[in-house]
Each structure stands twice: as C-alpha cells, then as structure tokens.
Write a structure and sequence with these properties.
elongated; binds aspartyl-adenosine-5'-monophosphate
Length: 442
C-alpha cells in the first residue's frame, strides 16, 4: 500500500491565541516551561508558546502530577482548565491538570534567560544566541523585524513590484571599494554579492518594478556599532520614473505602510519593548551641501570632509531636522559624484553631483538610493572616465546596450532600520546571528 498525503493537518493542541475562546473548558496546549515561581501552597508556571508567554497555575488540589516533574526549558504538552482571571494581563490563566514531558534539558542555561531582561554583556548575549533569543523581549525584536518585512512585501506587491531572487555568488563587485569578499570558484575568482544592484537593474528591463529582501556581504574591516559583514538588504528598483524623487516618494509611502502594519499586527511586541513608532507624514528633503553647511553653522563645527558625512554629523542633522519639522527621518540628496558608484546618474545641472539620496533615521543612514544611468553610451563613458575595465562588465552592460527605461531604486539595511526603530545603539542587537570581524558563530 502506498500512503498518499493530502496536506491535511489538524492542530493536536489549542493554539495560544485562541485560549480566550476556551474559558471554562479543559484544553491541551504545548510549549516550553519558561519560568517556575513557587509560592506558598501553589506555583506560577509560565509556558512559553510560539508567540505568547501564558500564565499557568499549579496547585496540589487540581494537578495530578508533582511540581518537581516540571523543569525550566522542558518541552511539554499540558492539560489544563482555562479560567477567567482578572489579575492576569491576558484576562485568563491555565489551571494545570496533567503533563506529558516531551523533553528535558541536559543542563540549565548558563545565562538566566527568563527574567524581564537578559542581564549580561552584548558579547554573552550573542555567544549564547540560541538560548538568549528565547527571552521574551529578545525574541520580540525579531518578531517586529518580521513585521517590517511583511509590511514591506505587502506594500510592494500592492504597488506592482515583482519579488525576485538574485545570485549571491557573483563575478564582480557592484558597489566598488575594498569591502568585498573574494572566494574561490572552480579555479576562478568570484565574490560574495555586496548588493543585488546589477541584477535588480537588469530585472527592471523584464518586470518594470522589482524587489528583493536577501543577505548581502561586506568585508568591513572595522568593528563599529553600525557595520555588519553580512546584512539583510531590502532592495527595490523601478522603471519609467521621471526623477529620483519618485523613489523617495515610494519609500515614504512604504515606511508609512510599514508603521501601519506594525501597529495593526504587532502591538504585543511593540508594547513589550516600549517602542515609539515614528510618524511618517512628510519627510523633509535637503541637499547634501546644504546639510553639511547647516550642521556646521548650527553647531559651530568645522567642515572637515566636503564629500561625505561624519557619523556625528548625521546625528546632528537628524536633531536639527526633527526640531524644525517634527520628522525623525530626513532625505539628503545630491551626493557628490565622486562618492557614488559608477551606475549613479549625474545631475544635468551639475555633473559633480548625482541624482541620488540617503535616508537618515534617528541619527543613522538607513537607505541609499537614486536614479541610474540607462543609456549605454553614457554608462560606457562614465566607466572609461573612471578607468574601469569595461570588458569585465559586459554582462551588466548588456541591458543598457539592448535598451532600458529610465529607472532607479534603493537599498535599505534591515538591521539598521530595526535597531533605530527599537532605539538600540548597536545594530548587532537587531541581527539574529551577527557576522562581524570577530564572529562566525553561533
Ligand atoms: P549602500 O552601500 O549605501 O548602497 O547600502 C545600502 C544600505 O545598506 C545598509 N548597509 C549596511 N548595514 C549594515 N552593515 C553594513 N556593513 C552596511 N553597509 C550598508 C545601510 C545602507 O544605507 N546598491 C546600493 C543601494 C541602491 O542604490 O539601490 C547600496 O548597496 O542601511
């Protein structure tokens, strides 16, 4: 006899989110024992389920097992009565009746994970990630991160973007600079993708609007609170644009949609982490040169680098803009051509500047974007001016050669965005398993 699977699966236990509907009933539920707090004559047992921590009560009168049978971090299936309880923040509690222990930990975790906060260094928090992530607040960070990408996906799909998946092993760097990982590839040299830049542009010629949410790799040699060696890049690219302002408009609408999505579906985590969502009404726009001068004037600072921001200047600019407009975001436009990659379109009125922008949020750059060169000749000329080996980019230039619409797009660093949203100083806090110069594990 061949068994055929038809995809039907019944939940064997009650889902935690539906518990309220079962008040007065006896149910079965599974999860991990998060915390046991013995009181006089009874005990609070906190059950960690996929998303909630559910309060259970153990009492000798009702339970048909000994409290000693329960151990923190055991995985269990519990039978319990759902009882209304005003003092519980959910409005109910589970009165334990029986337990089936599915597994027990070999040892107790070396780090206490079941307090409000995991009270340890960042180093330890990351070293013990598989367990520290079980902490209610730690895991809430990544639930919110899920909400961000869900919100983005929903918005982009509704706006006719096609989701794509592009290679991460590539023949050439897209972003320039020294921060590229080289790898051996069957006797040839290859690289880990710094961004999906080339491929998302190519796909504009196919689908007009595309997006990708995927890892990218940067061989940053410095340990800073905002750099990772692998991060998740949210990229979109759109064709038939009139100017790069359309990209900024789309990002503004996307961020607004994300905040609405989080508010609608992620309140438990937002409350748990006391997150104050920013208002995305209007985002102010300022040119790079003006921004540099404004910060210098307001804070009596000397401008040391006319081509780039110092991290401190980004912070100060955000402060000024928030005071002036109430917005915690600011678009900075027209970055110097010298500092932008070869694919960036130069401004018609001043070729020293590009039709590009960064988005700063709460003191940090979270996005870079802009209009790209779509003319084959123009792109070729710019590459030659930069003394690039054009032959190396033949497959990239194919799209220009055979015709492309005016287009542009952006890349947003998911971890940077999440960490700013949650008010975290270090981007590693918003990375499940960070990769930095000293960290390859866990
Ligand atoms: P850029 O190199 O500026 O642009 O990167 C885009 C965004 O990615 C994030 N980011 C990082 N996050 C963590 N660690 C890093 N090492 C790191 N480097 C960058 C930042 C940054 O704003 N192809 C262009 C985007 C485009 O024009 O479409 C690009 O990759 O949030």
């Amino acid at each position: 006899m061949i068994k055929l699977l038809n995809g039907e699966r019944k939940e064997a236990t009650v889902l935690p989110e539906n518990l309220k509907e079962h008040i007065g009933e006896q149910i079965q539920i599974h999860g991990s024992i998060y915390k046991i707090r013995k009181m006089r004559g009874f005990a609070f047992v906190l059950l960690r389920t996929a998303r909630q921590v559910v309060q259970c009560i153990y009492s000798e009168e009702q339970a048909k097992f000994l409290l000693e049978e329960l151990q923190e971090e055991s995985c269990v299936k519990l039978s319990a009565e759902v009882a209304a309880e005003e003092r519980s923040h959910t409005g109910y509690e589970l009165r334990l009746i029986s337990v089936e222990v599915l597994s027990k930990p070999e040892e107790a975790s070396p780090i206490v994970i079941n307090n409000k906060l995991v009270d340890t260094s960042l180093e330890n928090l990351l070293n013990y990630r598989p367990v520290t992530l079980r902490n209610e607040k730690e895991r809430a960070i990544f639930k919110i991160q899920e909400g961000i990408t869900f919100g983005i996906r929903k918005f982009l799909q509704e706006n006719r973007f096609t989701e794509i998946h592009t290679p991460k092993i590539v023949y050439s760097g897209a972003e320039g600079g020294a921060n590229i990982f080289r790898i051996g590839y069957f006797g040839k040299e290859a690289y880990l993708a710094q961004s999906p830049q080339f491929y998302k542009q190519m796909m504009v010629g196919v689908y007009e609007r595309v997006f990708e949410i995927a890892p990218v790799f940067r061989a940053e040699k410095h340990d800073t609170s905002r750099h990772l060696n692998e991060y998740t890049s949210v990229d979109f690219e759109m064709g038939y644009i009139d100017s790069f302002e359309e990209i900024m408009q789309t990002e503004t609408a996307m961020l607004r949609a994300v905040m609405e999505y989080l508010e609608a579906y992620y309140t438990p985590e937002l409350e748990l982490l006391s997150v104050k969502l920013p208002k995305v009404a209007g985002i102010p726009v300022i040119r790079f040169v003006e921004a540099k001068e404004l910060v210098a004037k307001e804070y009596h600072r000397e401008i040391k680098d006319y081509e780039d921001f110092e991290p401190e200047e980004e912070k100060l600019l955000c402060e000024i803009m928030e005071n002036k407009t109430g917005s915690e975001f600011v678009f900075v436009t027209h970055y110097p051509s010298k500092k932008r990659p070869f694919y960036a379109m130069e401004s018609a009125e001043n070729p020293e500047e590009t039709e590009s922008f960064d988005l700063l949020f709460r003191g940090l750059e979270i996005t870079t974007g802009g209009q790209r060169i779509h003319s084959y000749r123009e792109q070729l000329e710019k590459m030659k001016r930069r003394e690039m080996n054009v032959e190396l980019f033949e497959s990239y230039l194919m799209m220009h050669k055979y015709g492309m619409p005016p287009h542009g797009g952006l890349g947003l660093g998911l971890e940077r965005f999440t960490s700013r949203l949650l008010g975290q100083e270090n981007v590693r806090r918003a990375t499940l398993f960070p990769r930095d110069t000293g960290r390859l594990e866990p």
